[in-house]
Amino acid sequence: MIQKLLLILPTTTYSAGAFMKAASRLDIEVAVASDRRQVLAAVSPGKTLALDFFDVDKAVGQIVDWARAQPFQAVLGVDDHTAVLAALASQALRLPHNPPQAVQAANDKYLMRRLLAGAKIPSPAFALFSLDDDPQKTSGQVNYPCVLKPTFLAASRGVIRADGPEQFAAAFERIAALLSRPGTARRGGPAARRLLVEDYIPGKEVALEGLLSSGQFKLLALFDKPDLLEGPFFAETLYITPSRLPHDLQESIKARIQEATRALGLKDGPVHAELRFNDTGIWIVEIAARLIGGLCARILRFGTGISLEELILRHAVGHSVAALEVQEEAAGVMMMPVLQKGVLRHIWGLDAARLIPYIEDIVLTIPLEQKVEPLPEGDRYLGFIFARGPSPARVEAALRQAYDQLDVVITRADG
Known about the structure:
Largest sheet: 4 strands, parallel
Number of helices: 13
CATH topology of the domain at 3-98: Rossmann fold
Number of strands: 21
Structural class: alpha+beta
Distance between the termini: 59 Å
């Protein structure tokens, strides 16, 4: 019997191809729901559904109606917004799912902080403000250094560190301008009028990928982030696995995530998290009910070469993945940041970078002649550099060397 699955994909995702390839390997019939019918129709002809992601009740109703004609075993979202929609649709269809309120909590940084604090899981002091508040007055109500951030955006977008009242006011106004952009405001709804302020947590940062089955957490991979992320902005750069941290610390990180998922109420499906650790403990920075973003999943292989997307699909349709462990070969990815605003004119040095030992691939994700914008306003990387080698240190060195070969030319939009 062919298994069927509904995959909810925003048109901006990088992962559509990887999921469709994984489904083909597993002989799973995939229907695709997206926010634009014409974009994915060529990928899955006759099996696409156009949804308004911003009208959740209507979208859930459409999915339920569609399921009457072609039932499926699971509904899967691939980012924060579609994960909420997938949970609500799964609940309506009585399919295995995360509790929608838990996914919504993971998708709302303020709710996440409240639940973590209520469970006494180490969490920075925090406060919620309205964009209608006076930033000059508000600046006297927080501790310094602090971090200002929207409650609903991902990938460090809109996240700014402030070390004093003047920087606080400037960051507040900058984030307010970002949240006032029409697309961002529509996506956030009422949340686009709110701003979260947290105490800054010093220390090293790691990321992890995991999977929940009936509330039990399975660690899939732990990534070191060798570059210190101290602000004022927090662009991701390097992810290296396996982690070089001591075994006991890795086990403590795993235990902290299990505690955090229970505090939020998450029970089923992928988990991506960012954590910091220092002499005072292990702190949750972010936790999301989805898999890792961008193209970073490419560096993970399980068992005999199974991709992360295939593992997630296997779990979604009820296959056991308990025995699948990540391959021990060291791997890493460099997320190529946008360093200035303007138009991307050229990237020189790609051939030389690809010849660096252990470099596996370089994928550019923004076409030439496109406008680009750095964090905290920007939401895209120039591309991804992938490496695989005999040790984490060799992989890290290869990624840095390859990136140093590149000369990125960005000019002013009117230049």
